[in-house]
């Protein structure tokens, strides 16, 4: 079982950082963390083996931007369940998507993120877990950009912490719902998705994956005609993640002052509910946005997170409004 870390002063659990003692010439050394004990989990590492002479595939030159796939093998020698994942990604890493075949295992758009926060598993989530086969073949989609004047390193560390099989009673699902793009140069468009809930369950986390032309990402739960804002973000580089549990108090939402945050507490979903999300996009380039992995020259609008008991569709009902 992972250690149940307690909240630090100020109410938020402390996230592990700077555990490896790296002293390279590249930014982000402090993001390296140690792997779990072998009987508690495993670490997936994508990155160079020699920082003084890194392999060329891990070096990103100034002005470059790439989306690449890196293969890895999970470190578990027998089938396991996991839930807590620690993500650490060097600067310039815009997304990480981890798959085992067609099944999404997790990912991040944030350089420093734990899911759940610092490994604190809420009482209502004691039975949740995700299954992983022994020595599973993993594919990792990584989007990097280097908008600096010096070379950077492509590198991520992800720790998977095991759950006790005897405790896992409820499978956890990854949320990944994507809207289409066709936004002309000069257009201001609000893209909206409505995802129908067909089974009762709960949202565990949500966040948005967007690029530099999205000024706002919002999520609502709609029930019986009542639309409740449950997440809002304005920073595309460091998107905030809202975790819905009895142990996390999220920053209070305030759309009037553009204060990002999320609803606190358990976020239940009932049959007939909709999970709705929205991206406010301004295309101030000379290119039509079509949904490519280009942080400054294209745009995306994706709802990401975890759910339990229900599955949020990949493709949801879409609509578009012209912004003002």
Please provide a written account of the structure:
The chain has 324 residues and is mainly beta. It has 2 domains: 29-168, Jelly Rolls; 173-322, Jelly Rolls (Sandwich). Helix content is 0%, strand content 45%. The chain has no helices and 22 strands. The protein has strands at residues 41-46, 59-60, 65-73, 80-89, 93-100, 103-108, 112-115, 128-132, 137-145, 152-153, 156-163, 170-178, 188-196, 201-210, 214-223, 226-233, 242-243, 261-262, 267-269, 274-282, 301-308, 317-322. Strands 1, 4, 7, 8, 11, 12, 14, 17, 19 and 21 form a 10-stranded mixed β-sheet that branches. Strands 18-16-15-20-13-22 form a 6-stranded antiparallel β-sheet, with no helix packed on it. It is globular. Mean pLDDT is 92; it is low at 1-12.
Largest sheet: 10 strands, mixed
The topology string of helices and strands comes to EEEEEEEEEEEEEEEEEEEEEE
Q: What is the residue-averaged pLDDT?
A: 92
CATH class of the largest domain: Mainly Beta
Task: Point out poorly predicted stretches.
Answer: 1-12
Oligomeric state of the chains present here: single chain
Number of domains: 2
The number of helical segments is 0
Strand content: 35-45%
What general form does the structure show? globular
- CATH topology name of the largest domain, in short, is Jelly Rolls
């Amino acid at each position: 079982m992972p250690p149940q870390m307690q909240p630090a002063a100020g109410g938020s659990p402390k996230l592990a950082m700077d555990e490896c003692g790296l002293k390279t010439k590249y930014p982000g050394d402090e993001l390296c963390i140690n792997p779990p004990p072998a009987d508690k989990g495993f670490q997936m590492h994508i990155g160079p083996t020699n920082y003084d002479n890194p392999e060329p595939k891990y070096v990103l030159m100034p002005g470059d931007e790439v989306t690449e796939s890196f293969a890895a093998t999970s470190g578990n020698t027998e089938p396991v369940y996991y839930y807590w994942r620690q993500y650490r990604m060097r600067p310039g890493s815009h997304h990480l998507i981890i798959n085992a075949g067609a099944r999404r295992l997790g990912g991040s758009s944030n350089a420093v993120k734990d899911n759940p926060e610092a490994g604190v598993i809420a009482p209502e989530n004691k039975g949740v877990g995700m299954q992983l086969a022994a020595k599973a073949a993993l594919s990792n989609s990584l989007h990097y950009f280097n908008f600096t004047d010096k070379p950077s390193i492509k590198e991520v560390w992800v720790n998977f912490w095991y759950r006790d099989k005897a405790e896992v009673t409820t499978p956890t699902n990854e949320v990944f719902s994507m809207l289409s793009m066709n936004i002309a140069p000069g257009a201001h468009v609000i893209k909206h998705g409505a995802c129908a809930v067909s089974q009762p369950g709960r949202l565990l986390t949500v966040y948005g994956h967007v690029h530099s032309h999205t000024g706002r990402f919002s999520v609502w739960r709609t029930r019986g005609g009542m639309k409740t804002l449950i997440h809002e973000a304005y920073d595309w580089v460091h998107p905030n993640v809202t975790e819905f549990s009895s142990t996390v108090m999220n920053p209070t939402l305030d759309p009037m002052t553009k204060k990002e945050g999320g609803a606190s507490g358990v976020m239940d979903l009932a049959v007939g509910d909709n999970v709705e999300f929205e991206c406010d996009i301004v295309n101030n380039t000379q290119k039509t946005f079509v949904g490519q992995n280009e942080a400054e020259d294209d745009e995306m609008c994706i709802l990401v997170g975890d759910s339990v008991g229900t599955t949020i569709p990949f493709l949801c009902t879409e609509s578009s409004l012209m912004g003002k």
